[in-house]
Amino acid sequence: MGISIKLIGPLRVERDGQVLTAAKLGSPKARQILEILALQLGRPVPREQIINILWHGNPPSAASATVESYVSVIRRNIQPGQAKNGPLRTDKGSYILDPKLVQVDLDLFERTIGAADGTKPAEAYPKLVSALDLASAPLLSDELTFEWAESARARHAAQVADCSARAAEMAVKLGKTDEAVHWARQAVAAEPLNERAWTALVDGLEQGARYIEALQAYDNCRLLFRRELRCNPGPLLQAAYARLLRCTSDEDAELEEVLSALICLNERVKSRTGKACTLKQADGHDTTVYETAGSVIDSFLRRALASA
Fold this sequence. Notes:
By secondary structure, the chain is of the alpha+beta class. Helix content is 59%, strand content 10%. The protein has three domains: 3-103, Winged helix-like DNA-binding domain superfamily/Winged helix DNA-binding domain (Arc Repressor Mutant, subunit A); 117-208, Serine Threonine Protein Phosphatase 5, Tetratricopeptide repeat (Alpha Horseshoe), CATH 1.25.40; 209-308. Helix 7 packs antiparallel against helix 8 (195-207) and helix 8 packs parallel to helix 10 (235-250). Residues 1-99 bind DNA. Keywords: DNA-binding, Transcription, Transcription regulation. This is DNA-binding transcriptional activator of the SARP family.
């Protein structure tokens, strides 16, 4: 008999077409034991470790017997009539969920991401999207006493943010502009200091010819990094910014682009480091972000004088 356990979102167990919600799985501590074992799918979890988690290192004298009674409740619910021969096994003072008989959505999420590693964008992108579809809610969202699960939740949230950033990068490579922007914004919202996500967002907006939005995104990132990290965005984002400035200088430079260029030059005046960040253009000649910003303003002024 196989069962499916959902840890992403509210806890649910599916067995033989029947859905068991948290309320049907026993007391809060019994449900927590099932969650602990599902988070460690296929790995033995010692009884002492479970006791330490459930009672925060201060267990009652009958803790071992109490845990065994909780495990019996779980078995009656998820493998009725099978005693200790079903998916939940006992092994030398430890408990283990058999991965051959149990499917956990968190495990499937992680394996789906892993399947995208090292593959080409056309193959990786649908796998990453499939993983993100699985992660449509927070991990263990209905667990109220979640201190014991904090590390698992934080790790999962970081995985989702990284997966979103990767999906955005793959979407850019595939020319799926709107999808790239969608996933990048999701990653930035989850991890505002994730430079990879900001880069994917600016690249996606640039690819979609949404230059003003891309410049705004870069400036938001720059201000955030200066405030929180006391540094500027890295070379990839600065290169994207230079491209955006060149692109807008070749077209009608709206006031917003000119202001963005002025902000860039103002940063140069304030820093007075004597050394600008050198970027490499496609034609092989060295230039700087500040020189490019100057060309935007120069182009704008020339058109303004010509039309006066």
